[in-house]
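Every protein is a chain of amino acids, and every chain bends into a shape of its own. Below is the pair of lines this work produces for a single protein:
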Amino acid sequence: MDFSFSSDQLLFQDNVRSFLLNEVTPERLRELWQSDSGRCAALWGQLVELGLSAITVPEACGGMGMNELDFILLAQECGYAGLPEPLVDTMLVGVPLLAGLDAQHAPLQQRWLARIAEGRARLAVAEPGNPLVSDAHVADLLLLAHGDEVHAVERSAVSLIRNASVDPSRQLFQVQWTPSASTCVASAEQAQHLWAGAFNRGALGNAAQLLGLAKRMVDLAVDYSFERKQFGKPVGSFQAVKHLMANVAVQIEFAKGPLYRAAHAVAHNLPGQAVQVSHAKLACAEAAALAAKNAIQVHGAMGYTWEVDLQLFMKRAWALDKCWGDRGLHKARVRAALFDTGLAIGAGSTF
């Protein structure tokens, strides 16, 4: 059996990587940090032109009808570039959540999914258990939790309070709103199932971005190690520095297997997908954490400064490490599965 990605998937990844490296530069990220919204309509428009806003939208709604396995390599590239736009959360969490509503909400699905595919609307999704919603200020439709319910609320019906993040690229908001029967689109067991799926896909998307961020931090550290010299030689020629980067490279390679296996499990709705997602999140988060730590060491004191590009990606890795379940929650899910304790941990805890 061939477990490798297809040539089309790899070609799509190469094209997205080239685009993001050209358009999402460290200089552009710094500019967005200084803007009021932290977002760029022109950049989002370019992503739409590439077809990235339609990838997971069902074909019946004008999308490509692709799945999580098709998107996972692109999510990695979004992490590598430090893309601030909420493409991953939209494609992996928001669109499947909206598409998973029952038939009575078909008009709502058709209206919003078609607009999302065309780039005329954006989604924001409330992470279960987290009072802050990412990118609520640019969303046209918010999918919010209220008890065991899913609510679809237009932005005009909510008020937002901005909250700071360790990563200035993340735009976080408290959302104040009033639940009503008209906004409720799922409840009880159906809503629990939808939020469980959203949690797994959110953690999967974060894992992919963390893997991309780990690779970017290694590349930055390697480049710096050949520029900086001590005793007349690049510091990258010293064995101790080589070991720092080699240790991270090994972690990255070992994290790829769990990530891709989890993407396959989620895409095909296989049993045990929750624990596989948790394994992937843990492996990728640990690789990114080690990459940040060792890259700082390679940079020396320079690694902590605002001027060095490393901090752009290091801060994002620190922030994403805690999103869609921190390492403690995901370790608990893996432990519960391994030892069959019957422990239910957080959203998406069914195995």
